[in-house]
What does this fold into?
Amino acid sequence: MKKANVKHQSGLSLIELMVSITIMAAIVSAAVPAMQSLMSRKSQERADKLFERSIKLARSAARSRGAGNTITVTPNGSGFDWSQGWQIASTDAANVVEIIYRTDALVGRPTFTSNTFSRDNPLRIQNTGQATRTGTFNLYYPSCLGTQQIQYTLLISSTLDKQAIICPVTQ
It folds into this structure.
């Protein structure tokens, strides 16, 4: 009887490799949107904390600098766009302006606007720590779903009331 000459295969065949690549592509295509949503959520959390701390800093600076000083918080962008960052400045009785703090543009291209405060009409905090007027800000990212939009209401006490609201409908 003749013995069969069987060669042992080492490595993968072309078909096995193609099946493996197809499975990996399916896994990656499912994971990418979830990862983008996670990154947007984390960016929004960072922007949220940065804005809240900035308003607290402005209020604290207004109270510590005393009479004759006004603190302004102004967007770096044009008009009512706060997504390009903002600056906190102190103006004393002699109209000398000192920049206290400045932020960079927010990560991830969010929409961060105010219907009240703009470059020409900044948020002002008096030396008593009170804001000169109330207003709102809205922050959301392109992947906004459900109630992932944050709306801040600046109160006269220059504190923020924050709530989650429904994301705007995009076309």
